[in-house]
Amino acid sequence: MINEDYMPEAVILANGEYPTHTLPLRMLEEAKFVACCDGAANEYISRGHTPDVIIGDGDSLSPEYKERFSSIVHQIADQETNDQTKAVHFLQEKGFRKIAIVGATGKREDHTLGNISLLIDYMKEGMEIRTITDYGVFMSVNGTQTFESHPGQQISIINFGAKGLKEEGLVYPLSDFTNWWQGTLNEATADEFTIHCTGEYLIFLAFV
Q1: Coil, strand or helix: which one is 9?
Q2: What is the structure's pLDDT at 111?
Q3: What is the distance of C-alpha 7 from the center of its chain?
């Protein structure tokens, strides 16, 4: 059973639009450990907070903050991964497994798509990571799973090669669709729903 009552061990603040919804803001406020991607640290610090670590290639962090917070800046020049993935791998090396990512959407749409699709890669590495937006929760899933929900909740399924897709507790039937849009805008009919399949996919649970 998977639900929205998710308590991460650490939170990553990515450099998209700063969260406005109460849930991602609460995730940041209550986080035991906050890792800011370097550009996101500018906003986080300007709001009166101090991250536990600032991670990235260093190209977006203001010179003032780079000097002032030099003791917690972890600069990684590798251009084969984005700053979000750098932060995930840093936390993974520190022993964190359950992580929430906030601020990963908005601004450039290509970055948004990339950030969300990376959840599949993190799952393959044994991580349990969710992206919390102002509108809902993205999570990567492998195989048959049951999710807590409520009647009328909007649900989207984005397929990454899963086969035998079938549903219980959703308005619209599933099939082995190949285009991302085909699994969007479904709807829960009860307090839980189940996706039956083999293989990997993303689930989006809207807040309303």
Answers
A1: coil
A2: 86
A3: 13
Sheet holding 154-159, edge to edge: 73-75, 53-56, 34-37, 10-13, 98-102, 128-132, 136-142, 200-206, 154-159, 186-187
Name the residue type at position 4: E
Q: What is d(CA 110, CA 194) in angstroms, rounded to the nearest whole number?
A: 30
Q: How many CB atoms lie within 10 A of CB 61?
A: 25
Residues 108/155, Cβ–Cβ less than 8 Å = no
Separation CA 34–CA 50 (nearest Å): 9
List the structure tokens of 77: 């020049």
| pTM for this predicted structure | 0.93
How many helices (H) and strands (E) the chain has is answered by: 5, 13
pLDDT, one tens digit per residue, over 40-58 is 999 999 999 999 999 987 7
The sign of the CA dihedral 194, 138, 55, 35 is negative
